[in-house]
Amino acid sequence: MFSLTLDCAPAEHDQLLADLYECGTAGIVEEEVPGAGLRLRAFFDDNGARDALTARFAAHAPFCRDEEDIDWMAGWRDSWQPTPVGEKFFLVPVWSGVPTPAGRWRLEVDPGMAFGTGSHATTQLCLEALERYLRPGDTVFDLGTGSGILARGAALAGAGRIYACDIDADSAAVAHRAYQQRVAVFAGSLRSVRKASVDLMLANINAETLSSLAAELAGALREGGRVIVSGFPPRNQERVTRAFAKAGLHALEAQEKDGWVGMAFSLTAPKR
Ligand SMILES: C[S@@+](CC[C@H](N)C(=O)[O-])C[C@H]1O[C@@H](n2cnc3c(N)ncnc32)[C@H](O)[C@@H]1O
């Protein structure tokens, strides 16, 4: 195993994270460098990939270092505790025998190969917003489903039809297994979604992708439709809000958790 250290400006952070995950990193550690932006240390198992990764990220002062092998999955298993999220959800690892507290919905998670164990603040912000904005019977679309956790949360919260997709085919396959027919999952993105067919859209991605998809997101919504988004830090909130406003989406609320933002939008202007 080796680590690849990269420097970046705050504005490049989200895209760089997405690129590193696309390149198959096993995990990333973030550090602030006073006066010099951010430093990301990404771990990779395949020592043969050093040269290609160094070349790909040449613009970010790449630096490679040998590292002891880290079993990320074992660390995750040891540290994972059942977690209540919002008013209703109770997140537990699949191997846990801890009983569900009365009145909560048990949402079992398995890290598999995809993002979405529920331990990340962005996932929790989306689940919390789901409790407030999902109406029973809603047709829900989970864009960038990862492990499928938000779609399964929507099922527990009383959604009607549920669709989900991910541009990462491995994630789509993990999600498909997790849903066991309850949700229609496909590898791909918003282009394949029929116009005006969704009541509630869930999208925990990043500011750049969300902003570029704003018009398509809005177009997929039925009248009165809502969108729950997360995946970006407070410094990008204004950018997402502006892109969504341009697409006719009105901000309903913004919440913050551990340095991340979760927002809800509606096609209908809220009554003041
Ligand atoms: C941060 S993870 C969120 C996973 C899960 N929904 C959650 O909330 O924990 C973002 C996911 O979005 C997917 N993704 C990124 N851009 C996308 C796009 N344009 N269309 C569909 N999926 C996308 C990634 O592959 C990744 O699985």
Description:
The model has no long low-confidence stretch (mean pLDDT 88). The chain has a 7-stranded mixed sheet with strand order 10-9-8-11-12-14-13, sandwiched between helices. Strands 2-3-1-4 form a 4-stranded antiparallel sheet, with helices on one face. A 3-stranded mixed sheet has the order 5-6-7. The termini are far apart. The protein folds into 2 domains: 69 residues, Alpha-Beta Plaits, CATH 3.30.70; 153 residues, Vaccinia Virus protein VP39 (Rossmann fold, 3-Layer(aba) Sandwich). A hairpin with a 2-residue loop joins strand 13 and strand 14. Helix 4 runs parallel beside helix 5 and helix 7 runs parallel beside helix 8. With 272 residues, the chain is an alpha/beta fold. It is globular and about 55 Å long. It binds S-adenosylmethionine. The site of S-adenosylmethionine has 21 residues, from helix 4, helix 5 and strand 9.
Short descriptors:
Alpha-Beta Plaits, single chain, 7-stranded mixed sheet, binds S-adenosylmethionine, 14 strands, 4-stranded antiparallel sheet, 272 residues, 2 domains, 31% strand, Rossmann fold, alpha/beta
**Main sheet overview:** 7 strands, mixed
Order of helices and strands: EHEEHEHEEEHEHEHEEHEHEE
- Report how far apart the termini are: 55 Å
Average pLDDT for all residues: 88
Sum up the overall morphology in one term. Answer: globular
What are the bound molecules?
Answer: S-adenosylmethionine
Radius of gyration, in Å, reads 19 Å
Strand content: 25-35%
Give the helix level as a range of percent.
25-40%
The first-level CATH class of the largest domain is given as: Alpha Beta
Structural class assignment: alpha/beta
If helices are DSSP runs of H or I spanning 4 or more residues, what is the number of helices? 8
**Assembly state (oligomeric):** single chain
What is the CATH superfamily classification of the largest domain?
Vaccinia Virus protein VP39
The count of strands amounts to: 14
- CATH topology annotation of the largest domain: Rossmann fold
- Count of all domains: 2
CATH architecture of the largest domain: 3-Layer(aba) Sandwich
Low-pLDDT runs of 5+ residues are: none
Strand order of the largest sheet: 10-9-8-11-12-14-13
